[in-house]
Amino acid sequence: MNDRIHEQAQQQFAKNANNYVNSPLHAKGADLSWLVSSSNAGPQMEVLDIATGGGHVANALAPLVRRVTAYDLTEEMLAAAAHFIRANGHLNVDFTAGAAERLPFKDASFDLVTCRIAAHHFSDIPCFASEAFRVLKPGSKLLLIDNVAPEVDQFDHFYNEVEKQRDPSHVRVWKKSEWVNLLEKTGYRIETIVSFPKTFQFQDWCERAGLPAEEQARLATKLLQASQERRDFFSIRTSDSGDLLSFDGEAAYFQCRRDRMK
């Protein structure tokens, strides 16, 4: 594991924890509804939500299951998530701090593992996938959602450059093909993949990460001065006065089952 990456993530999310709890992009969205409806959550289930962030997945699943363990690298983020979840009356959620690449749980401990819009901050995604596999009971599921990069390399590199400029704790958004390859090699059987288009409202997107005004201006210039091919691909939109308004990206949902034979 890369300690420097973990330190950057802790610094970034500690100072912006409440921004993520209150973020409409994280608190709502078709991807969250899809995850919950696809979970087949039941009253006896033990759930682990890795990199819980603002706690939105844990909050949504808590009324449906026996217990949720909300797990995150950043203590301040866990505190903000706990305040949010407790305010909604859910008392069956535990909060544990730690890295996604080293889970402090026994083998085959959980009936369901979830991870939403977080893996692009992990220092070692293969290690995360392996650890999630280890703590799942045989036959149980990992439900994974993350932003995904375009399959075309030039668009992949541009998108990851933009994300890194906006948030220094960003490591890398993976392509869907990379996720499929990793998950199957780890031992999962992929049951479902669903793509979700995302529109990033530039001002809100920058403010959620606590990006200073001068850095926002530099990032806006990078997007506005992109080639026409890139502007078209990411649907970069401007106001009548030429100010950057938004651009489009994509998230993907992967529903994966731990093979009973492994």
Task: Detail the topology: elements first, then pairings.
Layout: H1 3-15, H2 17-21, H3 24-27, H4 30-38, E1 46-50, H5 56-61, E2 67-72, H6 75-87, E3 93-97, E4 110-116, H7 125-135, E5 136-147, H8 153-166, H9 176-186, E6 188-201, H10 202-208, H11 213-224, H12 228-233, E7 237-238, E8 244-258
Parallel strand pairs: 1-2, 1-4, 2-3, 4-5
Antiparallel strand pairs: 5-8, 6-8, 7-8
Describe it.
With 262 residues, the chain is of the alpha/beta class. It has one domain: Rossmann fold (3-Layer(aba) Sandwich). Helices cover 42% and strands 25% of the residues. It has 12 helices and 8 strands. Strands 1, 2, 3, 4, 5, 6, 7 and 8 form an 8-stranded mixed sheet that branches. Helix 5 links the parallel strand 1 and strand 2. The longest helix is centred in the middle third of the chain and has 14 residues.
Strand content: 25-35%
CATH class categorisation: Alpha Beta
Q: Uncertain segments of ≥5 residues (pLDDT<50)?
A: none
Helix % is: 40-55%
What's the average pLDDT?
A: 91
- The total strand number stands at 8
Number of domains: 1
Radius of gyration: 18 Å
**CA(first)-CA(last) distance:** 25 Å
Structural class assignment: alpha/beta
Broad shape? globular
State the fourth-level CATH superfamily: Vaccinia Virus protein VP39
Query: Any guess at the CATH architecture?
Result: 3-Layer(aba) Sandwich
Largest sheet report? 8 strands, mixed
CATH fold category name: Rossmann fold
* H and E string: HHHHEHEHEEHEHHEHHHEE
